[in-house]
Write a structure and sequence with these properties.
The chain has 145 residues and is mostly helical. It contains 4 helices and 3 strands. The longest helix is centred in the last third of the chain and has 28 residues.
Length: 145
């Protein structure tokens, strides 16, 4: 069976590499599935964001919406999805020379996702909510004394 799997072309959809959002999530531990350093990881990436950045750089990308990461206990739609990327051509050479390994693709995606327009707009709103939260904590502290 292993010989049959090795004989298939890297251009087959089954041979594309899989990237789950958990691989790039800074809220996850390594035991929970994160595969890149926490300082380079992104807060709650989605499969569509990973697909967008990989397609923009020129990869052959396939989004599987209903697939789930086996270690993901939360069944919400936000955590669903898997991105398949063609890493190598038929002859075994990388499709894009700047991305020879799956780790290089994951690091690029994690670096690029925060720069997406959808992310930059969301960040503006979340800064205000953080300030409100801090103000509420200060008020609670005063009441306790």
């Amino acid at each position: 069976m292993a010989a049959g799997a090795a004989a298939t072309s890297p251009a087959d959809k089954e041979r594309f590499i899989c990237i789950y959002p958990a691989y790039l999530n800074n809220k996850k531990t390594i035991a929970e599935g994160r595969r890149i350093p926490i300082d380079k990881a992104v807060e709650n990436p989605t499969s569509t964001e990973i697909q967008d950045v990989c397609a923009a750089v020129g990869f052959n990308v396939l989004l599987e919406k209903n697939k789930m990461y086996p270690r993901e206990w939360n069944r919400d739609m936000q955590y669903r999805g898997r991105v398949r990327i063609q890493l190598k051509q038929d002859d075994g050479n990388p499709c894009l020379p700047q991305f020879p390994t799956r780790k290089s693709v994951m690091l690029y995606a994690a670096e690029t996702i925060p720069k997406l327009k959808t992310r930059t707009q969301k960040m503006g709103g979340s800064d205000q909510s953080l300030q409100q939260g801090e103000g509420g904590k200060k008020g609670k502290g005063k009441k306790k004394k």
